[in-house]
Amino acid sequence: AGSDLRSGRVVNIQTAAQLQVMLVEPTEFDEVKEIAQQLNRKITVVLNLENCAPDVSRRILDFLSGAIFANHGVIKPVAKLTFILTPSNVTLMGNLLNDLESNGFSIDR
């Protein structure tokens, strides 16, 4: 059940440096390990928890907060139930959300 991350596609954002961003919409806690592995690979993750039960969302956020902490990264909310998780090699600045939207992501603001 955990190997079927919805919309788990990686998109290259054209910037001064190449940035890989993955949009994930987990519905089960079993999917969290694969998301953490993306962070370990230095891939930025946009995490949408809109289709996830509140108790599962909390567990997912708790687990990924630990993964982010261990990787010296950052987790920031970008919408009500959507977060951006950046590894240590990525600094959020400027208008990253517009860059994401122009590359096919739909971000609710």
Describe the structure concisely:
Helices cover 30% and strands 24% of the residues.
The number of distinct helices, counting runs of at least 4 residues, comes to: 3
The chain-level mean pLDDT equals 79
Order of helices and strands: EEHEHEEH
Report the β-strand fraction as a percent range.
15-25%
Silhouette = globular
Poorly predicted runs are none
What class would the helix/strand composition place it in? alpha+beta
- Radius of gyration (CA) equals 13 Å
Give the biggest beta sheet: 5 strands, mixed
- Terminal Cα separation, in Å? 30 Å
Work out the number of β strands. 5
State the helical fraction.
25-40%
Question: What do these coordinates show?
Answer:
It is a single chain. With 109 residues, the chain is α+β, with helices and mostly antiparallel strands. It contains 3 helices and 5 strands; from the N terminus they run E-E-H-E-H-E-E-H. It has helices spanning 32-40, 54-70, 96-102, and strands at residues 10-13, 19-24, 44-48, 74-79, 82-86. It has a 5-stranded mixed β-sheet with strand order 1-2-3-5-4, with helices on both faces. Strand 4 and strand 5 form a beta hairpin. Helix 1 runs parallel beside helix 2. The longest helix is centred in the middle third of the chain and has 17 residues, at 54-70. The chain starts with 9 loop residues before the first strand and ends in a 7-residue tail after the last helix.
Could you outline the blueprint of secondary structure elements for this entry?
Layout: E1 10-13, E2 19-24, H1 32-40, E3 44-48, H2 54-70, E4 74-79, E5 82-86, H3 96-102
Parallel strand pairs: 2-3
Antiparallel strand pairs: 1-2, 3-5, 4-5
Helix pairs in contact: 1-2
